[in-house]
């Protein structure tokens, strides 16, 4: 049986003009932030379905976020740590380290807020892969060349990401190379699409009908019927 893991959600408070800016246009900054808020809340729900605890590594002003009250309710009772470090790779490594300090001896499973289609079942499957003999890390490729999930049997191994360029078409491959160069045996999770563009938002929303994310994207397509996959 798989033991508990610490699910780490790396997130940015969904403030208008500071999140999902590639949705604008056709979305307004407020609607883009509403879509980001829905994605984050759905991701927190999925994380809650994984055996163990959730740690949220957060940046931004929660009070200025779209859906601030819903976000506050979702974060109530969860460990929330501030993101720290220069650059995304450093912040990811710090989030794993902070989660390990809060829950010593547990592996970590880290996701962002760009894949609201990642269900509790899928995340639990990643945790199960991480518990398999001969597996030190789980990496889920993203279709844009990045990655959407990183599981580590030893959370401090996230320091291997230092020097890996983030948010590029080579990030996934470079991350895999860095993990293997650090001596880690890596299992790959199924690829998912990160939501960056309006077309990607529509495509992902179709995979999760009835979700907060799908309802928020429906508002986008209602206002902008020309948006399509």
From TrEMBL:
InterPro entries for the chain: Nucleotide-diphossugar_trans (IPR029044), Trfase_1_rSAM/seldom-assoc (IPR018641)
Pfam family for this entry, one: DUF2064
PANTHER family linked to this entry: GLYCOSYLTRANSFERASE, SLL1095 PROTEIN
Entry protein name: Glycosyltransferase involved in cell wall biogenesis
Organism: Pseudonocardia alni
